[in-house]
Amino acid sequence: MTDTKLADDGLSLNRIGLYAVLLGLVVFYLLPLEAGIVTSFKSIRAYGQTAPFLPAVDGFTLAQWSSAVDQLSGSLFNSVLMAVPATVFSALFGSMAAYGLTNIDWRGQVGIYVLFVAGIFVPYQAVLVPLKRFWSQWVPLHIWLEPVWYLTGLGTDYAGLLALTITHIAYGIPICTLLFRSYYKSVSDEMVEAARLDGASIRRIYRRIILPLSIPMFAVTLIYQFTQIWNDLLFALIIVGPGDASVITQSLIGIGQSESVTNFPLQMAAAFVTALPTLLVYIFFGEQFAKGVTA
């Protein structure tokens, strides 16, 4: 009886210790987030008078959020203009490539798949100089598509944004292909074979069978790709550069800074404005994302 009671007490103590550690980790993770949110609703004066994680004594203000939206509106539009097609096309092309590598037998299939996998592990830093030369000298879109920039009134700066979009599509295809290929391995071969016996073409099988079954994995790849592309700064700095076509991560670099003081509340508001689209994408595709991850 005594041993059982001690064992129960020991188990309870272990659980209490575990919950205490978990609670500490949650607080450690959420405290900076809470401090950032609270700071974004403060004025510069209130920020200097109170601790970062405490609300302002004189109440909250939306001035920093309004200023952040005003300053980031142009680059926010550019990021949407770049990230949405880059995300959709990289996922779609990855799905097509995975279908060709999984359900179609052809010579050189393994070698091509190895190249796709190798593309995932190429660090971006290793291709920055070739990419810069490729878009500025070998494929100068600002010259080749000059009539387009003139007719649309966008300006040649948007040639860099188009180049950035194409770059993200190309570098997103390998990881999307790997994800879709793993998913298509679980698709019933009998279903595809039955469609072939009925005379369905490769294109029809993909459109009528594979594509509808791929919705959960599309949610996974869309969320992953959009998050990576939206938060990218390295490619944007190298390919786009400063100008009217700057994306939102570029605009974050200098926001809230002046020679006299740094506006931390404005920086926090701008950071949350930047993060909001990725959160909305996850909320929209969250249910399908869970299905795709557990598939």
TrEMBL record:
The chain crosses the membrane at residues 12-31, 76-98, 110-131, 158-184, 205-227, 266-285. InterPro entries: MetI-like, MetI-like_sf. The keyword Protease does not apply. Residues 76-285 form the ABC transmembrane type-1 domain. One of its GO terms (cellular component) is plasma membrane. It is found in: Cell membrane; Membrane. CDD domains: TM_PBP2. It comes from the Archaea. Belongs to the binding-protein-dependent transport system permease family. This is Carbohydrate ABC transporter membrane protein 2, CUT1 family.
